[in-house]
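Researcher: We're teaching a course module on how sequence relates to structure. For the next exercise, students receive a sequence and then see the predicted structure as tokens, so they can try to spot secondary structure elements on their own. Here is the exercise chain.
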Amino acid sequence: MMVGAAEDVGKAQDYSFSKVQMDKAKLAGLDTIRLTQTWTKGQTKLGPNDAIELGNAIRAAQFTGLRVVLSLYPFGSSVTPLTDEDRADFAAFAVDVVKRYPLLHDFIVGNEPNLNRFWLPQFGGSGEDLAAPAYEALLATTYDALKAARPHSTIYGGALAPRGVDKPNTGRDTHSPTAFIADLGAAYKASGREVPIMDAFAFHPYPENSSTGPNFPHPNSTSIGLADYDKLVSLLGTAFDGTAQRGSSLPILYDEFGVESTLPATKLALYTGTEPATTKPVDPSVQAQQYLQAMQMTFCQPNVIGLLLFHVQDEPALSGWQSGEYYVDGTPKPSLASVRSSAFGVHRGIVAACPGMTLTPKLTLAVGKPAKTSVKVVLNCSLDCHFTVTLDSKRVTGPAIGLTPKSLTFKGAPAKGRHVVTATAVAVVNAGAAATTSGSFTVR
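Model: And here is the predicted structure for the students to work with:
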């Protein structure tokens, strides 16, 4: 499972600045960065300035060891691609971006197309949904183009906002994700398409405000949050099961989830504007608790492949998001260490005990050159595990921390001939079948 952030602050003309931003994400325990790149009408190639900034961010992230997910979407509702020509231009633009960065394999198409801020029109004259069918057409066109350019890429559809009103002419035309997913499935079926339009589904499960918490469910409304996983899977299944497009088994990436924290008096001068009353930010310690809870919940949701926090670093305008693990000046918040520990808990497979989940660690074993009086072995377990390593009649058992090499020493001079070292390990939490591996060496 990816644990990362949606963060564009690393897009810069100066590569060294980009690298510093990615280093901060890595220090926060994150393994993935979602970057964005917008499109406007008539554009079929990435502009020169965008190419520098996006390129610096991608290279810095990859050099730092971060997986990059790139979100490609129209700049705003004024440039919604509604014609065949516009969709073809958008797809050509996406392919141009893909070809520039050969190590990039994760692409989100669109951003919150169920909101009027990013997609218009939402409704027709009779109140029918125009956004979902138009987005389905764009997703299909772009999917085909990207798959032709990079067949083994992962294309994410959706990227939906968690709420909407489903009523035209309210002054803010929006669709709920519940209605939009259903209409997206209907549009796909009506198209007669016999290949998928997405490999995974992106979603933005923000709570109503930062004080709500991630475990607040919406069983009787059209909103969807982190606590509504079963509802989301059911909606995808109803929309797509029985077609060429996966539905109830579709992988899910929560690519935006943020909790805003309060600011100490010593930092207020660094920010501008006024915090909206509806935000209800929480103390950084509560922010850390909510991020941990979000990781625990999503870790136990079978179809979920990642959770991306919004952001790594605060936005300077208080009307924006102060949801990072760092203040706007780059200094760490009190929540940083806890978020780092929680992310490592995910990577090590111990963040939560999940009903029905069984994990088997991956093992690697390296046997050093035998010395006159001992043999050294290094074991690496992908998850926190209990291990047993055996050499001839000697055995060593104990715990190992996930992704942390464990050095073992077998004392005594090995006899001449071939010797086999075997290792078995069982996950500490959510234990499944044991993993096994072996190595050998020869004393001549």
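Model: If you want an answer key for the exercise: Residues 131-149 form the longest helix (19 residues). The longest strand covers residues 417-427.
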